[in-house]
């Protein structure tokens, strides 16, 4: 229900998409105020509504990117399909280096072991100890 802003169109479905909780809560309140009903019922009854696009349009057009900004795909890299994960040992390090990725996502349902991912990630972490220390995820 927003009017076109004249801004360049954007694709909001590039993976990984990380949602900011405060933006999601404000989006829910926005939908409820606009349509005078629970947000989940409005979304369920809407035609051709996708969660990523709704979030992206709200964050950019309504919230004016105050709390989140889009990351261009070359800064992120993901291994989504089982066929990609099957070859992860052969291509992970090179793909990270080739793209300059700062964010890597591995889909959990592929069955890839976390210790393998950590081993591969350690090969491309920065060598500055205090930076690498901040990248460790439990």
Q: How would you sum up the global shape? A: elongated
Estimate the mean pLDDT confidence. 80
First-last Cα distance: 41 Å
The percent range for helix content is 40-55%
Poorly predicted regions: none
Strand content: 5-15%
Order of helices and strands: HHHEHHEHH
Q: Biggest sheet, in brief?
A: 2 strands, parallel
Number of strands: 2
Derived from helix and strand composition plus strand pairing, the structural class reads: mainly alpha
Number of helices: 7
Radius of gyration: 18 Å
Q: Regarding quaternary structure, how should these chains be classified? A: single chain
Strand adjacency order, main sheet:
1-2
Produce a short descriptive summary.
By secondary structure, this protein is mainly alpha-helical. Helices cover 49% and strands 6% of the residues.
Structure, described:
The chain is mainly α and 138 residues long. It is 49% helix and 6% strand. It has helices at 21-35, 39-45, 51-62, 82-86, 88-99, 114-122, 129-135, and strands at residues 76-79, 103-106. Strands 1-2 form a two-stranded parallel sheet. It starts with 20 loop residues before the first helix and ends with a helix.
Q: Key features?
A:
6% strand, elongated
Q: Mind sketching the topology for me?
A:
Layout: H1 21-35, H2 39-45, H3 51-62, E1 76-79, H4 82-86, H5 88-99, E2 103-106, H6 114-122, H7 129-135
Parallel strand pairs: 1-2
């Amino acid at each position: 229900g927003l009017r076109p802003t004249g801004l360049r169109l954007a694709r909001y479905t590039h993976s990984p998409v990380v949602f900011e909780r405060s933006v999601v809560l404000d989006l829910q309140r926005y939908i409820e105020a606009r349509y005078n009903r629970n947000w989940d019922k409005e979304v369920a009854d809407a035609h051709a509504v996708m969660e990523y696009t709704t979030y992206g349009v709200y964050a950019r057009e309504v919230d004016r990117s105050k709390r989140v900004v889009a990351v261009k795909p070359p800064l992120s890299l993901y291994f989504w399909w089982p066929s990609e994960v099957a070859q992860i040992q052969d291509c992970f390090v090179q793909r990270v280096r080739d793209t300059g990725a700062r964010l890597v996502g591995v889909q959990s349902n592929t069955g890839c072991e976390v210790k393998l991912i950590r081993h591969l990630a350690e090969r491309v972490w920065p060598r500055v100890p205090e930076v690498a220390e901040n990248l460790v995820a439990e």
